[in-house]
């Protein structure tokens, strides 16, 4: 059922709402009691407080993945039967969530269910397994999974660019529309069962990357985690994706985003920085991205395996029999094992070439070493899979023909499906496991191998081993797989270097028994303590931490389509109403107005040679009101500001962040801070010049009181790195000088100590107080970190204000700030100031009176 609250998202990407098949009634909420609870009200779907009330007190986790952890079988009489898929990670992670947490699964079934049977099957799965199936029409599913997921996302995330039609194909927007449509269907399924105030939602993998946007739009405070099980490519690869921004923004609608390795997380953070301009911070060990007032946490933890399942299979009689069979089959020979899916990224052919090289360079290994390659069926389909199969078969045939003899095949290729216990048996008898994937998100084969090599007493007896002897194992692992950083005892290889892989195989064969035991013990200790339950438990703990401030923050949604995001800010932070401030303005008689220029009344980064005409006229009108004292407070130099605002004779100007001050046109400039000399510039400027020469795109801005190194147009990562180095360098060489070295947005600035915009606010308020003019109206507008000093002064200056004073500290844009108000952009600020100016002009026509500003000037 397509809810009305999402129609605009689908309209955006597809030009109209897609057809999902016939409409079906909503499933009842999954609860601990039977019966249908009240349905969600779609009419309220866009409100900030649209989270439906919950009648369920038990903690719940809704796990959403492409496939349900179920196996389906249709009997001869046409009846469907279902059972848990014990191999599914989504099922295994349940062990780490605790018995007190109810788990609901949402996903597709592997088998296609006829439309007439879908209602009955859905009800059965809900009641029996607490699973909610998403039934996707076959043609839509094909475009979604085999199209966008497998032709675009999967190759790109594994560093394959669509340079030709044979390499994934060109971007097809119809496939993207199908991807969004399927994600929308999954979102509807989540809405059928969610209790948004209580439930946690955990979304898995690249198939559902835009799902967080749909859920966040419907429930602004949904507790939402996402884990990516594939690699995340570098920004140079990812930026080629036409829908790159949409996917990044969708992921950022999660509260917690998980990755297997730091490399994957680093690439994601780099993409957010380069494409969205976001920065991240590490606080007490946690990495967080600030995104419209929300902190999106980043989790780095590789998934583990279900050790209990492996151990139960190791205990099976069938496993023991298979181990005995393989022991006899490979008696007197050393078994090397590879277990891989038959796809282009698993590096099977590279492994085979390395085996060929090993036998060529070491003739003594012929007849003694066997490579068993288990090739699991490919998950995708297409020409590339067929090419891998043909190449693998041809290479195996060539090696066996060259080096084989009667009773000996150097390579045993198993490309037919194996029972799980059969694969376990191969792990048990293999002396070394080889993983030569050229790119893989995680790869749990080495983990399974380590646990199986630990074995048990029965298998030790079968193999003729002393049960008291320490176990041993060897791993040769590609440095391009996610598990590699966790396995510090493995021999890491570059799979593209055939000679290196062959040498690693040789090393694994000749290493001493004691070293094999030490490496195995190290790996076993890690794998056994970092299992899938540990991974799930850790993710849930971090998700709870990431969501703990949800109820304390005010949330509302902005943006359209897949650009939707939620603003989360302090409850006291609100948009400044023009009517409200104009009303206060009219009631008051002694007003102090402090205005930043860059970013507040002119777009930051704009290239201008003069002030905006509308701004100047508005300021002149405000200055003509005798009740007003108006100051422009800017980081620009005094010469520029003097030229720009020469026509505003009564306007106060503070230049270079408050170092220079001129109360009006008739008096000379003065300095707010006493600086004996600027000798420090002779030290700082050469240092900045050094970094400018080595950082393309950076510049030095020389002011009378300060030096600013700007890297706005440099490479973001390199510029940020250089800025940190420059900051440390300057702090070191200027340690004995009376200056402060600070970093800001794309800048590093050196200026005299004590210089900040806050001193201008203090000056203005104290001057008015000394003249007996306690301000009863204070307006302060700014847009960046330097303006926070002004906000802090006026918000804590009650002693300098009238007891009935109204204070308006206003920032630009919805972001964390010491200000209590915000306006969206420079256009809204100018419109508000024009409203104040109009009020002054109306009052001047009705109540002409002596200028208070003139009185202040005359009394000096």
From TrEMBL:
Q: Keywords in UniProt for this one? A: Glycosyltransferase, Phosphoprotein, Transferase
Sorted alphabetically, which CDD domains does this protein's record hold? GT20_TPS, HAD_TPP
Reply yes or no: does the keyword Transferase apply.
yes
Keyword DNA repair found: no
Q: What is its EC number?
A: 2.4.1.15
Q: Which SUPFAM superfamilies match?
A: HAD-like, UDP-Glycosyltransferase/glycogen phosphorylase
Q: Name one GO biological process term.
A: trehalose biosynthetic process
Q: Which NCBIfam families match?
A: HAD-SF-IIB (TIGR01484), T6PP (TIGR00685)
What molecular function does GO assign, one term?
alpha,alpha-trehalose-phosphate synthase (UDP-forming) activity
Report the protein name in the record: alpha,alpha-trehalose-phosphate synthase (UDP-forming)
Task: Extract the InterPro entries matched here.
Answer: Glyco_trans_20, HAD-like_sf, HAD-SF_hydro_IIB, HAD_sf, Trehalose_PPase
Give GO cellular component annotations, separated by semicolons.
Answer: cytosol
Q: What reaction(s) does this enzyme catalyze?
A: D-glucose 6-phosphate + UDP-alpha-D-glucose = alpha,alpha-trehalose 6-phosphate + UDP + H(+)
What does the sequence similarity comment in the record state about its family?
In the N-terminal section; belongs to the glycosyltransferase 20 family.
């Amino acid at each position: 059922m397509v809810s009305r609250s999402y129609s605009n998202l689908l309209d955006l990407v597809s030009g109209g709402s897609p057809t999902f098949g016939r409409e079906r009634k909503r499933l009842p909420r999954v609860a601990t009691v039977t019966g249908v609870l009240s349905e969600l009200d779609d009419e309220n779907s866009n409100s900030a407080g649209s989270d439906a009330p919950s009648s369920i007190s038990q903690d719940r986790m809704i796990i959403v993945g492409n496939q349900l952890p179920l196996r389906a079988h249709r009997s001869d009489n046409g009846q469907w039967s279902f059972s848990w898929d014990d191999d599914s990670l989504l099922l295994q992670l349940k062990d780490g969530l605790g018995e007190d947490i109810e788990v609901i699964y949402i996903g597709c079934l592997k088998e296609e269910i006829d439309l007439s049977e879908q209602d009955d099957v859905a009800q059965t799965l809900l009641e029996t397994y607490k699973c909610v199936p998403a039934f996707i029409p076959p043609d839509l599913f094909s475009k979604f999974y085999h199209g966008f997921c497998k032709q675009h996302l999967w190759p790109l995330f594994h560093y394959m660019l669509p340079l030709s039609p044979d390499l994934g194909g060109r971007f097809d927007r119809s496939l993207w529309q199908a991807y969004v449509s399927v994600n929308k269907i999954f979102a509807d399924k989540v809405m059928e069962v969610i209790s948004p105030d209580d439930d946690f939602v955990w979304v898995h993998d690249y198939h559902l990357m835009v799902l967080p946007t749909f859920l966040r739009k419907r429930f602004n405070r949904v507790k939402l985690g996402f884990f990516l099980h594939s690699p995340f490519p570098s920004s140079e690869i990812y930026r080629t994706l036409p829908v790159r921004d949409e996917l990044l923004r969708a992921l950022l609608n999660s509260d917690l985003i998980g990755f297997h390795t730091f490399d994957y997380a680093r690439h994601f953070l780099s993409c957010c920085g380069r494409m969205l301009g976001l920065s991240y911070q590490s606080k007490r060990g946690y990495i967080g991205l600030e995104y419209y007032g929300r902190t999106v946490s980043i989790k780095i933890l590789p998934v583990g395996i279900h050790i209990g399942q492996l151990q139960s299979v190791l205990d099976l009689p069938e496993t023991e029999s298979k181990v005995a069979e393989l022991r006899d089959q490979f008696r007197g020979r050393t078994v090397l094992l590879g277990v891989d899916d038959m796809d282009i990224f698993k590096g099977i052919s590279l492994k085979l070439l390395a085996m060929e090289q090993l036998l060529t360079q070491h003739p003594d290994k012929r007849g003694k070493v066997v490579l068993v390659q288990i090739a699991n069926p490919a998950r995708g389909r297409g020409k590339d899979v067929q090419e891998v199969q043909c190449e693998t078969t041809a290479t195996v045939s060539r090696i066996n023909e060259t080096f084989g003899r009667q009773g000996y095949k150097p390579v045993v290729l198993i490309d037919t499906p194996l029972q799980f216990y059969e694969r376990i048996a191969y792990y048990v008898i293999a002396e070394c496991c080889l993983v030569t994937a050229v790119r893989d998100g995680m790869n749990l084969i080495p983990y399974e191998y380590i646990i199986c090599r630990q074995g048990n007493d029965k298998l030790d007896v079968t193999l003729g081993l002393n049960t008291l002897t320490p176990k041993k194992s060897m791993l040769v692992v590609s440095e391009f797989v996610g598990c590699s950083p966790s396995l510090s005892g493995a021999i890491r290889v570059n799979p593209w270097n055939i000679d290196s892989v062959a040498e690693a195989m040789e090393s694994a064969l000749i290493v001493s028994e004691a070293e094999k035991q030490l490496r195995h013990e190290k790996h076993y200790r890690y794998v056994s303590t970092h299992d899938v339950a540990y991974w799930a438990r850790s993710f849930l703990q971090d998700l709870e931490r990431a969501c703990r401030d949800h109820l304390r923050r005010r949330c509302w949604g902005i943006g359209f389509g897949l650009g939707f995001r939620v603003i989360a800010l302090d409850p006291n932070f609100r948009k400044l109403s023009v009517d409200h401030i104009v009303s206060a303005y009219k009631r008051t008689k002694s007003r102090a107005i402090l205005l930043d220029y860059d970013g507040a009344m002119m777009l930051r980064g704009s290239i201008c040679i003069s002030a905006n005409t509308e701004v100047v006229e508005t300021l002149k009108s405000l200055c003509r009101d005798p009740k007003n004292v108006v100051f422009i407070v800017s980081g620009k130099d005094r010469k520029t500001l003097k030229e720009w605002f020469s026509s505003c004779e009564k306007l106060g100007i503070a230049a270079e962040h408050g170092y220079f001050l001129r109360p009006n046109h008739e008096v000379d400039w003065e300095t707010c801070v006493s600086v004996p000399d600027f000798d420090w510039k002779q030290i700082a400027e050469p240092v900045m010049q050094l970094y400018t020469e080595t950082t393309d795109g950076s510049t030095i801005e020389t002011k009378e009181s300060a030096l600013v190194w700007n890297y706005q147009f440099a490479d973001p990562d390199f510029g940020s790195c250089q800025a940190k180095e420059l900051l440390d360098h300057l702090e070191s060489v200027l340690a004995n000088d009376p200056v402060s070295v600070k970093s800001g947005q794309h800048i590093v600035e050196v200026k005299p100590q004590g210089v900040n915009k806050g001193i201008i606010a203090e000056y203005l308020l104290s001057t008015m107080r000394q003249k007996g003019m306690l301000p009863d109206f204070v307006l302060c507008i700014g847009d960046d970190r330097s303006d926070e000093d002004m906000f802090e002064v006026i918000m804590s200056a009650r002693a300098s204000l009238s007891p009935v004073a109204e204070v308006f500290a206003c920032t630009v844009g919805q972001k964390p700030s010491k200000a209590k108000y915000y306006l969206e952009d420079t256009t809204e600020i100018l419109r508000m100031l024009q409203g104040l100016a109009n009020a002054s002009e109306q009052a001047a026509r009705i109540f002409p009176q002596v200028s208070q500003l003139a009185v202040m000037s005359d009394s000096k």
